[in-house]
Structure formats: C-alpha cells, structure tokens
C-alpha cells in the first residue's frame, strides 16, 4: 500500500510519565510487523523520542505524519507542523477525527457493561475528552462521536465531559447518578489525566454515591483498542484524497 513511504506517529508524551505513549509504541510495532510502510517511527512533543530524533532515523523520501491526537486542534494543526521544522511531509488528519472512533467507543462500552453485568440499556456512557480552557465551545470530534453512539439507542444515556471546559467531569457524573456509568477516555496519551486526574474524580463520585448506588467504572481509553491500527492506516492514506 505505502511500502515505499515512511510513517511517523507524533503524540503528546509526558515529562512526568516517560511511558505515557506506550500505546502508540505498541501500535507502531504492530504496523512494522504488518510491513505496510517502509519505516514506522514514533515521536512525542514532550519527552523521548523527540521529533528530531525520529526524523533522523527516517531514510526514505516520502514521509506521512499521523498526529496521535484526538482533536483537529492546536497540536495537530500547529505544534506538529512546527516540530517538523520544515521537513517535507504529508501531514494527515489526527486519529481522533476518524469516523470509526465511534464504533470503537461503542465496542468498549458494551464490553464494560458485560463486565459489570448490567444491561447496556440501563447504563450511561460518559466519554471524556480534553477540551480547551483557552478556546472552549468549539465543535469537537468528541461530541460528534458521542452523538453517533447515542443514535444507536443501545445505552440509557451517552454523554460527554471535558477536563478543561464545560461540561466538566464532576458535573456530568453528578447528573448521571441514577445509572451505572461507564467512563471511556477519548484521550490518546496515558499521562497525568488518565493516571492522576480521572482516578481522583471517579473516587470522589463513588464516595458521593455510597455503596448502594450504581457504580462508576473507567474502562480505559479508546486508543488502547487494537482496531486503532486500521484507523491509523486510514488516516495515513486520507491525505491523498
């Protein structure tokens, strides 16, 4: 397909958690095994390997860059091109913008309902994204995917919440107290938001609900799904259209 091209996945990374991009590395290794590209490299904006380090390893002339971000915003539109420092590359849409993400979230949510032994039609799904404190209110892929899932009527409710803009996570969880809640991360990076912020927010909600109330469970991030491989491949090719 793209056997003469290099693929570079660029994620956020984390200064605090060096392995925050482990999922992206796993997907990159699976893509290497599939031998669809001449080279597959990974870089992060914060931490290692840096974009410069990854670019230095690329030896083929045609480079496809897939931002491993969930929204088509500052990082995919500004930070990634800036990090490439003028290197000729086809910058593709971020993984989170792909329409297939809604299906992956739905798959995760149904699996979580099975593990909780609750009917999906009694459960609420809360999809958590980052949002933006500096530019709140813009159209987000997060909301688009959640709307598609809600239209299937598989779940009692499908809601979204953000870490940095309204609706905030704590408020959304309070509004869903009549239901068992499956929390799905619309987050690409396993950094502080996943490891620190979400556990604290969920623990506080569980305490507020008490032992007899429906539970809340975090069921991982959508990017953990092995089916992300096809989404990465699709995004790598979408720049040709």
- Tally the helices: 8
Strand order of the largest sheet: 2-1-3-4
Taking all residues together, what is the mean pLDDT? 94
Determine the structural class based on helices, strands and strand pairing. Answer: alpha/beta
The tally of strands reads 8
Gap between N and C termini: 15 Å
- Low-pLDDT runs: none
Please give the radius of gyration in angstroms. Answer: 18 Å
Strand content: 15-25%
Query: What about the largest sheet?
Result: 4 strands, parallel
Instruction: Give the assembly state of these chains.
Output: single chain
- The ordered string of helix (H) and strand (E) elements is EHEHEHEHEHEHEHEH
Helix proportion:
25-40%
Envelope shape: elongated
Detailed description of the structure:
- The protein is α/β, with parallel strands linked by helices and 241 residues long.
- The protein has helices at 22-34, 51-57, 74-84, 101-116, 141-150, 169-175, 192-209, 228-238, and strands at 2-13, 37-46, 63-67, 90-91, 124-129, 157-162, 181-185, 216-221.
- The strands form 2 sheets. The protein has a 4-stranded parallel β-sheet, sandwiched between helices. A 4-stranded parallel β-sheet has the order 6-5-7-8, sandwiched between helices.
- The two termini are 15 Å apart.
- The model has no long low-confidence stretch (mean pLDDT 94).
